[in-house]
Task: inverse folding
């Protein structure tokens, strides 16, 4: 009996998740099928219930449904509760369990793939929306030394910092001080080909600049970082690693993400 999984989004046609999970399944010998599912903007809950009734075992959730998935789940993992969003659903015994693997995926990409140790690192996180909220907990769990949170709207950043016990230091883009081991862009600015107006002194030789977005060309943020001596990394590694973590949640088997990421990079 093949187990069925889906990625639910709107739009979803661009999603690389089916290819990633098919590669993981082939690699680990797991008998599963993984397909895209386009949910109507006003029909996420009904879509989940239908897939569940049809016998699906789980689903990934992408834009714009991660908060709705959080509200829909009967139970939540601690990391999903902290993130306020769910990207991985597990269907079992008629119930829906919600998890969030985005932060774990980012941490693993930074540490295992990019080779940067987070323990004690000085980190600048740009953005205070869902993408930033989703990764703060796992970044703190990984032991970051100092975390500066910068956002266009300061009040949003302050509210997010308060939800994390005031641990992130909140700052306006232009007022960010000093250089960092790691600068993560979790804003949506790259979608508009914009760069958050941070001082170029945040980068020094050896700084890792990571944009959660990915595309054929480096984002303008990554181009700016590279011009100032940073090594750059797009969001493709995080995408593959969050998928590997979801695969582990569902199947109890950890796939080898390296060859899958390399194959995707070859296609980009
Ligand atoms: P997501 O779930 O992807 O994080 P979001 O909740 O809409 O999406 O948050 C988008 C983030 O990108 C926010 O931090 C937003 O800043 P504001 O809080 O000031 O809105 C940021 N953002 C969007 N466009 C931006 C731009 N052109 N320059 C800088 N920051 C931008």
Result:
């Amino acid at each position: 009996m093949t187990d069925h999984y889906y990625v639910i989004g709107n739009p979803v046609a661009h999603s690389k998740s089916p290819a990633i999970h098919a590669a993981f399944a082939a690699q680990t010998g797991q008998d599963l099928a993984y397909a895209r599912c386009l949910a109507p903007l006003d029909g996420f809950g009904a879509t989940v219930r239908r897939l569940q009734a049809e016998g699906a075992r789980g689903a990934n959730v992408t834009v714009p449904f991660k908060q709705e998935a959080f509200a829909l789940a009967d139970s939540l993992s601690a990391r999903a509760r902290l993130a306020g969003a769910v990207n991985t659903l597990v269907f079992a015994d008629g119930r829906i369990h919600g998890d969030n693997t985005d932060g774990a995926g980012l941490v693993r990409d930074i540490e295992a793939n990019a080779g940067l140790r987070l323990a004690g690192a000085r980190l600048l996180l740009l953005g205070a929306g869902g993408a930033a909220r989703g990764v703060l907990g796992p970044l703190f769990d990984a032991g970051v030394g100092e975390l500066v949170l910068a956002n266009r709207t300061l009040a949003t950043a302050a509210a997010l910092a308060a939800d994390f016990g005031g641990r992130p230091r909140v700052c306006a883009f232009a007022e960010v001080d000093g250089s960092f081991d790691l600068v993560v862009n979790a804003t949506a600015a790259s979608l508009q080909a914009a760069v958050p107006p941070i001082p170029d002194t945040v980068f020094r030789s050896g700084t890792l600049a990571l944009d959660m977005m990915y595309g054929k060309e480096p984002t303008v943020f990554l181009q700016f970082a590279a011009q100032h001596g940073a090594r750059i990394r797009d969001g493709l590694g995080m995408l593959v690693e969050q998928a590997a973590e979801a695969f582990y949640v569902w199947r109890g088997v950890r796939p080898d993400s390296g060859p899958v990421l390399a194959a995707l990079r070859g296609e980009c």
User: Anything to note?
Assistant: The chain has two domains: 3-100+237-267, 103-234. The pocket of 2'-monophosphoadenosine-5'-diphosphate is lined by residues 127-132, 151-153, 156, 187-189, 192, 194, 196 (CB under 6 Å). The two ends are 34 Å apart (CA to CA).
